[in-house]
Description:
By secondary structure, the chain is of the alpha/beta class. It has 16 helices and 22 strands. One of its GO terms (molecular function) is oxidoreductase activity, acting on the aldehyde or oxo group of donors, NAD or NADP as acceptor.
Amino acid sequence: MDDTSGKLFIGGEWVEPAGGTYDVVDPASERVVGAAPEATRQQVHDAARAARDAFGPWSRTTPQERAAILDRAADLMQRDFAANAELAQAESGATTGTARGMQVGVGVTRFRRYARGALEPVEEGLAPQINEAGPMGKAGVMGALAVRQPVGVVTCITSYNNPWANPAGKVAPALAMGNTVVVKPAPQDPLSVYRMAAALAEAGAPPGVVNVVSGAAVDVGEAAVDAPDVDMVSFTGSTAVGQRIGEVCGRSMKRQLMELGGKGAAIVFGDADLDSAVAGIGTTYAFYSGQICTAPTRALVHRSVYDAFVDKLTAYIGFMKVGDPRERGTVVGPVISAAHRERVESYVELGRKEGATVVAGGERPAGPGTDTGFYVAPTLLAGCTNDMRVVREEIFGPVVTVVPFDGEGPGDEDEAVALANDSDYGLIDYVWSGDVARAFRVARRLRAGGVGVNTVGRNMEAPFGGFKKSGVGRDVGSYALHAYSELQSIVWPG
């Protein structure tokens, strides 16, 4: 291990954690991956102060300077790609393909995207306004300019399901806009974020521009939110934690970007391509073992194709290899921890008690590579109703619930939309139908921040965020640059 191991990154220095260290555990092998530093409240506030001191000079750098640093950081992350992917896999339990492509690969891509983003225009000229003479002065023509300014110091609290792409999606656009950051990684897999900070430092990010403080104690996250020097909090995680963060931010009017829970409704109409729908909904099991807020975990299936859908999805699950994420062919790896496995299993048992039929899964998987590790068998709960807790609450594991709906013609659209919208969440929903015009018509009626029509794919320039309890604000693409900026109006007489 190098001399940065087990240390915080504050003000450009690797700092001994006053709270000691704690073990990061591989969810697949249950072996210790490394020692993560435990910050104290004071050290978190020190990091925010370092970011505050760095903000003035960094915000005045040219876009070209910021772009060059972000690009160099991407080069360095790519240089160490294999080692970074190996660490990400060890921390998160992701399969090899996911660790390489969806974690480190996407992280690198996001830094390159926001290196370009740093060069996007931040000024917009507005149409002149002719003012009559009055109490405000003489008649005249007023020009105006809308200017995007950096918010200031941004606390980035990241999720455990993707220790590269999620932090990159916050840090890179925040830096591109001229903000400085304090990153508080998820306690389960923080080591990758320190690698990211090291790459940024090597790339030339000035001291204090990027700071990383980790900890398993709740107090560490609270300090990162309530620090007086913090102007904005960007959080990805559960709705319950997001609500508590929002309350703290409200007291001092800190800006917020919240990407919270989801319970994606996947509407499958009678004319849908069932193989396509099954493959799309089956990604719930494959990606991060269901630990993804965008997953279509709530299948709403028209009665006419309900039995066929359940049969096809059951068969699909049968082809999913569960086990060691490092083994070739593994599709479903472990969940993040023993505690989370127990949580997911308790929901499956709850589903049984509520009257759902466990068509697949429901027991711990048996087979090579599952003797150790926190594995949950891909689970299908059929015969569900919308009032069941397993349908209404985010399980965040490899579990899909199936709810049938009826109706003919516009009637089936009405019932499907009503069921989909009967949720506290509204992140991403999905519609499968052979009638594309109908699919788009239904999509417009769904109270969700995004809707996939006959796909679970994403357009990475499209705004991302949720309605209702799924969050506040939007990021991705240029929308992330907007999220980490404030609008300033400059007005002058023509």
